[in-house]
Amino acid sequence: MGSETLSFIFLNAVLANNFVLALFLGLCPFLGVSGKLNTALPMGLATMFVMLVSSVCAYLINLVLVTFEIEFLRLIAYIAVIASAVQLVEMTLKKFTPGLFRSLGIFLPLITTNCAILGLALFQTFKEYDFLQSLVYALGAGTGFMLAILLMAGLREKLELSTMPTITQGAAVSLILGGLLSLSFMGFAGLGG
Amino acid sequence: MIKEKPTITWETFTEGLWRENPVFVMLLGMCPVLAVTNSAINALAMGLATTFVLLASGTLISLLRHNIPKQVRIATYIVIIATFVTIVDYTIQAISLDLYNALGAFIQLIVVNCMILGRAEAYASRNRPLKAVVNGLGMGIGFTFALLCLGVVREILGAGTLFGLDLFGPRFEPWVVMLLPPGGFLVLGAWLLLFEWIRQRKERAELETAAETR
């Protein structure tokens, strides 16, 4: 699988194998933070950034693990690295752009338990991508996540203006919306592999 | 230190089954719920694996609760959970390679299942080991039950089988979309609608009886 072109990897991660709608990764923020467009956008950006950072870290860590033949520590190493990367991002933002830090608030630490990040690190290892491919894969996954969460937020904002039966007010309607979005993203299935 | 309630009641066990069911009520740990429930057997395996990790990490965290420094507790919990997940990962790989391939990366992704970390933070770190185990068992069974609810419906509609047994004979036309990603969203949405409908009916009935007795 190491020979895929960069544009194929990118399109595959954004559309055909969208992390949220086709692989079911990162559903917690997708359902939890998609209520309004102006919270969904910073969440998408922060996730994308952490994805890029942790993708690079995971690639380097895996090199070390393979050299010493201690791959069984991969999971523990990855999760520790992701947790510290999130912490690092948090501190950097707090120091240099306090405004952005405040608008992200609680979402930032929660990115640690976003399975899209760990999933990305694991998938790029399974698929044996080289450094550049991993980076493009992370960029694609981040863009895909952003696309999904923005679409969802837009739909839910529209939904607030319409009248619905009382039983659908809650998580159920978000899931049905997610199902419809996922159904439409299946149309891209032919693009990927 | 918060004063610990020493009693273990039936409630400790049952709250995870229904009233605080992690999937249907609290909407925690959604990723594996939707991703691996395309057949009943996958759902069962995932539920059992998660229950094991929940119990084992709950016990260890509860035993160590006085020794873990407050500042690094989350990191400690994650490392403990990751250790048990690695054990489960290798065990499943040894027992059944088919199952391992079907569940894919989602076994390793148990680490970031927010339900387990949530239980560790909210329950195991504040209670005695036995109580944490009883509660964890309830939560685990509740989680497995929810996974089975989805897995059974999706397998019957999408493949016409249940645990691999053919139900409808050769003339059944499978509703393949139920096995694909959209099916997961739609079936879980439908279950939530059903439960909400039952809850509202019950509420209305209670209001009516209250009005009659007055």
From TrEMBL, chain A:
Q: Where are the transmembrane segments?
A: 6-33, 45-66, 72-89, 101-123, 135-155, 167-191
Q: Which UniProt keywords apply?
A: Cell inner membrane, Cell membrane, Electron transport, Membrane, Translocase, Transmembrane, Transmembrane helix, Transport
Key word Transmembrane helix present: yes
Bilayer topology annotation = Multi-pass membrane protein
NCBIfam families given for it?
rnfA
| PANTHER family assigned | INTEGRAL MEMBRANE PROTEIN OF SOXR-REDUCING COMPLEX, ION-TRANSLOCATING OXIDOREDUCTASE COMPLEX SUBUNIT A
Q: What is this protein called?
A: RnfABCDGE type electron transport complex subunit A
State the species of origin: Candidatus Thiodiazotropha taylori
From TrEMBL, chain B:
One biological process term in Gene Ontology: electron transport chain
Keyword check for Electron transport, yes or no: yes
Quote the EC number.
7.-.-.-
Q: How does it sit in the membrane?
A: Multi-pass membrane protein
Q: Which family does it belong to?
A: Belongs to the NqrDE/RnfAE family.
The entry's function note states:
Part of a membrane-bound complex that couples electron transfer with translocation of ions across the membrane.
State what protein this is by name: Ion-translocating oxidoreductase complex subunit E
Recorded source organism is: Candidatus Thiodiazotropha taylori
Q: Which gene encodes it?
A: rnfE
